[in-house]
Design goal:
By secondary structure, this protein is of the alpha+beta class. The protein has helices spanning 32-40, 42-50, 59-74, 84-89, 91-98, 125-142, 198-216, 240-263, 295-300, and strands spanning 2-7, 152-160, 166-176, 182-188, 222-227, 232-236. A six-stranded mixed beta sheet has the order 1-2-3-4-5-6. β2 (152-160) and β3 form a beta hairpin.
Length: 312
Amino acid sequence: MTATLATEQTVDPVPERTTAADAAPRRPSLSPSRAADFKSCPLLYRFRTIDRLPEKKSKAAVRGTLVHAVLEKLYDLPPAQRTVEAAQTLVAPAWAELREEPGIAELFEPAPPTEGAEPSVDEGLEAWLASAGQLVETYFRLEDPTRIQPHGREELVEVTLPDGLLLRGFVDRLDVAPTGALRVVDYKTGAVPREAFEAKALFQMKFYALVLWRTRGVVAAQLKLLYLKDGDALTYSPDEAELLRFERTLQAIWAAIERAVATGDFRANKTRLCSWCDHQALCPAFGGTPPPFPADAAAAAGWRTTLPVTPV
């Protein structure tokens, strides 16, 4: 088993943010967002990971990126200077940097009028920036940053399991107590999920907890999701047995992904989430036809494109 921990600056997962964890890795790997994609819709996984089809940015996702950047930069300041006022002053420079990314500034350009159509009411840049500032302010109701000294921010965590599966992702914040206890913190710019969806929300955090356990030999004492829209938090404390079960779940997901790549068979799964999908025109569930499976490109990227032969 090999393991790596490294710190890397990134731009803010699907659906909230896009990070370097979603860029082409040195070999096929599994991240929390891509595992969630395959669970929800194998065809979406293919479009994002194999075909790497472009997707439009949204104001909500970019707002998440901006807020994450501000909270990351907040911890560059000395503890006594981590105030609400100081955090608000970080919004403008973080936005100035973010707006240079392709496709972001265009989100705030006025749409050309359409003859005969009702004028649309859209969120302007000033109101959008103010909403980001409100989310940053809400963060201070959940934690006192003057009392926290993070061990890592936007930290790449990865591990290769004994069966060869490479797990990798980026942790928003990792805190380490003097006792060695770990706390994994993730910022969410949406609202706390209903109880029925808590397990789905914790999937990402269990993923990080598993990688940290395998790399450090320590089960995280707390997984903490901070929901900035409504100023609430979701916390959870996993145990070793649970992480072992979760590891088997990820291995099963990966085995299914490998079978799909080897056969080119990625099924569409129609759900309410399809309303936000950019690929409906190519989806059989909406009358579309996917492009031919790019087997050569998949093989060049390190994917196994033939099923293993099972000994008789």
